């Protein structure tokens, strides 16, 4: 069923990530209305007021909020950031058990309030959380998905663009698999101004050799750890990337984004949520595009899927 397109976006969890998403949406005009929910009433009221006080300087957007989940009722899109956050030195998968229980409890309640909503999980470890949420309700596969490697792919493109001395918009490339340590950089399909990475030259010199590719891929994987160590959380870039996902849903844009959704056989991968280039529209996460992979990329993607299967089994065992 096509989602109701009333433009209402609810954000569940107003910590640093939820607040950054709300702020990005407000500035970009991503939502017709924003509903903010958090269990801490004073905190969410303060964020609502702070955002409202800037209303003169942004596109019109109604903003409400509270500590009652009913504020999310009749949403077109619900963004979930609630849960324990990643601490310095902690992997995303270490967070799994606590946040899986939250997702399993929360998802049916959200859909009861907004039966036609698309629900996007940002909470880490996002692939395991998204899988838990999808298993907890009976809705079409794409209605629940995760932010996946949209941010990782942005980091990837930024690093390539910096080295090429070009605007990021000229770089196309994806990070796929887990949003985490086993993610895969698809170097074989990177395009820089239409030129494959292996053939790209700067001042006549090829700059994306194997060592450089390995270094950039490593920097992408470790980027979040560096930010968390320095400021306690990643929030600004995930705010912007989530706003972009919201715009793809709200505008029915059929935008290809590497979001995390339940895989059903592509590349021989099944019954796991991970990120692949996916058509995002008002109905949620749709068709997954089968990009040609090199043999190492194919093997890496399967290893990433296995890591996520193992993480889910570990959570199940308690």
TrEMBL record:
<feature type="binding site">
    <location>
        <position position="17"/>
    </location>
    <ligand>
        <name>NAD(+)</name>
    </ligand>
</feature>
<feature type="binding site">
    <location>
        <position position="147"/>
    </location>
    <ligand>
        <name>NAD(+)</name>
    </ligand>
</feature>
<comment type="similarity">
    <text>Belongs to the LDH/MDH superfamily. LDH family.</text>
</comment>
<dbReference type="InterPro" id="IPR018177">
    <property type="entry name" value="L-lactate_DH_AS"/>
</dbReference>
<keyword id="KW-0560">Oxidoreductase</keyword>
<comment type="function">
    <text>Catalyzes the conversion of lactate to pyruvate.</text>
</comment>
<feature type="binding site">
    <location>
        <position position="92"/>
    </location>
    <ligand>
        <name>substrate</name>
    </ligand>
</feature>
<dbReference type="GO" id="GO:0004459">
    <property type="term" value="F:L-lactate dehydrogenase (NAD+) activity"/>
</dbReference>
<dbReference type="Pfam" id="PF02866">
    <property type="entry name" value="Ldh_1_C"/>
</dbReference>
<dbReference type="GO" id="GO:0006089">
    <property type="term" value="P:lactate metabolic process"/>
</dbReference>
<feature type="binding site">
    <location>
        <position position="38"/>
    </location>
    <ligand>
        <name>NAD(+)</name>
    </ligand>
</feature>
<dbReference type="InterPro" id="IPR001236">
    <property type="entry name" value="Lactate/malate_DH_N"/>
</dbReference>
<keyword id="KW-0520">NAD</keyword>
<keyword id="KW-0597">Phosphoprotein</keyword>
<comment type="pathway">
    <text>Fermentation; pyruvate fermentation to lactate; (S)-lactate from pyruvate: step 1/1.</text>
</comment>
<dbReference type="GO" id="GO:0006096">
    <property type="term" value="P:glycolytic process"/>
</dbReference>
<feature type="binding site">
    <location>
        <position position="172"/>
    </location>
    <ligand>
        <name>beta-D-fructose 1,6-bisphosphate</name>
    </ligand>
</feature>
<protein>
    <recommendedName>
        <fullName>L-lactate dehydrogenase</fullName>
        <ecNumber>1.1.1.27</ecNumber>
    </recommendedName>
</protein>
<feature type="binding site">
    <location>
        <begin position="124"/>
        <end position="127"/>
    </location>
    <ligand>
        <name>substrate</name>
    </ligand>
</feature>
<comment type="subunit">
    <text>Homotetramer.</text>
</comment>
<feature type="binding site">
    <location>
        <position position="234"/>
    </location>
    <ligand>
        <name>substrate</name>
    </ligand>
</feature>
<dbReference type="InterPro" id="IPR036291">
    <property type="entry name" value="NAD(P)-bd_dom_sf"/>
</dbReference>
<feature type="binding site">
    <location>
        <begin position="152"/>
        <end position="155"/>
    </location>
    <ligand>
        <name>substrate</name>
    </ligand>
</feature>
<feature type="binding site">
    <location>
        <begin position="83"/>
        <end position="84"/>
    </location>
    <ligand>
        <name>NAD(+)</name>
    </ligand>
</feature>
<feature type="binding site">
    <location>
        <position position="43"/>
    </location>
    <ligand>
        <name>NAD(+)</name>
    </ligand>
</feature>
<dbReference type="Pfam" id="PF00056">
    <property type="entry name" value="Ldh_1_N"/>
</dbReference>
<feature type="active site" description="Proton acceptor">
    <location>
        <position position="179"/>
    </location>
</feature>
<dbReference type="InterPro" id="IPR022383">
    <property type="entry name" value="Lactate/malate_DH_C"/>
</dbReference>
<feature type="binding site">
    <location>
        <position position="86"/>
    </location>
    <ligand>
        <name>substrate</name>
    </ligand>
</feature>
<feature type="binding site">
    <location>
        <begin position="122"/>
        <end position="124"/>
    </location>
    <ligand>
        <name>NAD(+)</name>
    </ligand>
</feature>
<dbReference type="InterPro" id="IPR015955">
    <property type="entry name" value="Lactate_DH/Glyco_Ohase_4_C"/>
</dbReference>
<dbReference type="GO" id="GO:0005737">
    <property type="term" value="C:cytoplasm"/>
</dbReference>
<keyword id="KW-0963">Cytoplasm</keyword>
<dbReference type="InterPro" id="IPR001557">
    <property type="entry name" value="L-lactate/malate_DH"/>
</dbReference>
<dbReference type="InterPro" id="IPR011304">
    <property type="entry name" value="L-lactate_DH"/>
</dbReference>
<feature type="binding site">
    <location>
        <position position="157"/>
    </location>
    <ligand>
        <name>beta-D-fructose 1,6-bisphosphate</name>
    </ligand>
</feature>
<feature type="modified residue" description="Phosphotyrosine">
    <location>
        <position position="225"/>
    </location>
</feature>
<keyword id="KW-0021">Allosteric enzyme</keyword>
